[in-house]
Amino acid sequence: MIMHTKAGGSADVFVENYRPGAFDALGLGYEEMSKLNPKLIYCSISAFGSNGPRREQTAYDNVIQSFSGMMAMTGHGDGRPLKSGAPVVDYATGTTAAFAISTALFQREREGGKGQFIDVSMLDVAMILYSSHLTSYMWNGKHPEQKGNVFPFASIGCYEAADAPLMIAASNLAQQKALWIALEREDMIKTNNNQRLDGHAEEAATLASIIKTQTADYWETFLNEKRVPASRIRRMEEALADPQVAARNAIQTLNDPNSQVNGLKVPVSAFNLSSSPAQVNTAPQPIGAQSIELLKELGYSEQDIANMRQQGTTN
């Protein structure tokens, strides 16, 4: 505990994802740590948050997808719930925490150097991810049901081309007009969204009959040239081989001959900074890789560290 309090006394940011209350019981909660370091940004990540009747429950991405209602509204309309192909709640929770920490650091600079407590809940993150569904339900009481690849407007959706499925996204009125003009079906153009909702069945049948006449690659090229967003359904390996991915440099290769994972390719960042581009320059570290370095920075002697290792308090 002394080691942790020393670290917290000099740190800018402290992040933990234990069950709420666990660190408080050890004397490492925000109240105690902030007394040692008033500038500390303390970020706590948990399944249900630090307050409420479920605060002490633990969960993972799939459990939160289940509990939040996300799985119930995802599927092909046969009543069987379906989780997302990727652990989106896990990923979004980490991103949310990073955004919150950045915000708190910025506020600290603006507001006299005082730190604060950040409470990140996976359940809250899930609700943000389906915020449009939630807002609609709270407004009209209509629960979101499984729709598969069907959207409210027929000009948005998945259609079977001659050889593969194709996703079309003629979302707004201008795009749906461009779509019908491109397909030489100006009679299907609508002037408002209510007409589009009412005409869903007819439009979907018309699109299905047209799209099946050509390959998905043909339609992807043709529609994008007409400024109508469209894409053939791809597997991940094909998407990764696309020149666009290489151009963005989001996937980089670790170059470290001394590492067991030399040559490992990883996605680095979903954004680019003009002055400080993201780079992979360090291999994934084993647990406690910097323990000795950090302990020395905190003032512990070689003998102190040796004693800690003997006691099993550090590696």
TrEMBL record:
Example GO molecular function term? CoA-transferase activity
Protein name according to UniProt: CoA transferase
Does the UniProt entry include the keyword Iron-sulfur?
no
Which Pfam family, any one, appears in the UniProt record? CoA_transf_3
Name the PANTHER family on file. Answer: SUCCINATE--HYDROXYMETHYLGLUTARATE COA-TRANSFERASE
Q: Which InterPro entries does the entry mention?
A: CoA-transferase_III_domain, CoA-Trfase_fam_III, CoA-Trfase_III_dom3_sf, CoA-Trfase_III_dom_1_sf
Q: Does the keyword Transferase apply?
A: yes
Task: Note the SUPFAM superfamilies from the entry.
Answer: CoA-transferase family III (CaiB/BaiF) (SSF89796)
Q: State the organism named in the record.
A: Marinomonas arctica
Keyword terms:
Transferase
